[in-house]
């Protein structure tokens, strides 16, 4: 197979684009997809101070590299979740990248800063690990970006992730989540702007991007991922994509073009009703009796006494 752009031998075939690319044209393709996503959704402006949430995996390290290549002033944020050797190892990949590229890495350890780790938090809150973990990461990312004065928080969600989340939200008709599912969540009181610049790139492309740049990333899956519903959704979508390449991209892009706006009002209404958490100040729904979900998990895991009246 030859490269679509320059006719040199291709190193990767992208069936969704019905094309192959050589190394240089593939790198250019990845940059172009990120640049287009940033422009299309007005994610950020040159000169803004960007914080990239990095896990040590291919997506977030690839994103960090891509943003820096595109000229953005992007620092990394690594949150230590306390998931045994997995966390130790993933931190070392994030640190190695920062060291090698002369980039700034902010590190926050959940145990040191908040007094609990994800295994304890999920047990204490009786939530599946990924639920306690996702919620904690969202809280810590937002808090860190706000505290350190960043303009925007970028996460490494790729096309496969977004398609799987969308699939789950549609299967259960979670309309509020559908209204919130967008590559840009604008800043609001208590919230930094959040963006997903990898929305146009798939998992395979990120893995290949890291390989061609010699970016080392953690390959092992998180040991607590078992039971994560999105893994099943990904498998189902992969089976569909195999038969008709391009379905995932069409699913996500058509949703954003034609469907998302129908659910925005519901999501905005929920956001407008948020009130500062009485413990940490983060925006929280009135139904939570004043204490945000993160502070409730933290209180249960650490045995701290805070006024917890709702579950
Ligand atoms: S780290 Fe956390 Fe993921 Fe592990 S516990 Fe689940 S959400 S799988 S990206
Ligand atoms: Zn709180």
Can you characterise this structure?
- There is one protein chain.
- This protein is of the alpha/beta class.
- The chain contains 13 helices and 10 strands.
- It has helices at 23-40, 58-69, 84-101, 110-114, 118-125, 129-147, 159-171, 175-180, 203-212, 229-243, 247-259, 264-272, 293-302; strands at 12-14, 19-21, 49-53, 73-80, 105-109, 152-154, 184-185, 193-195, 275-276, 283-284.
- A 6-stranded mixed β-sheet has the order 5-4-3-6-8-7, with helices on both faces. A two-stranded antiparallel ribbon has the order 1-2.
- Helix 2 (58-69) links the parallel strand 3 and strand 4.
- Helix 1 (23-40) packs across helix 9, helix 2 (58-69) crosses helix 9 and helix 7 (159-171) crosses helix 11 (247-259).
- Fe4 H S5 (Q46) binds next to helix 6.
- Zinc ion is lined by residues 277, 279-280, 282, 292, 294-295.
What's the gist of this structure?
This protein has helices at residues 23-40, 58-69, 84-101, 110-114, 118-125, 129-147, 159-171, 175-180, 203-212, 229-243, 247-259, 264-272, 293-302; strands at 12-14, 19-21, 49-53, 73-80, 105-109, 152-154, 184-185, 193-195, 275-276, 283-284. The protein is of the alpha/beta class.
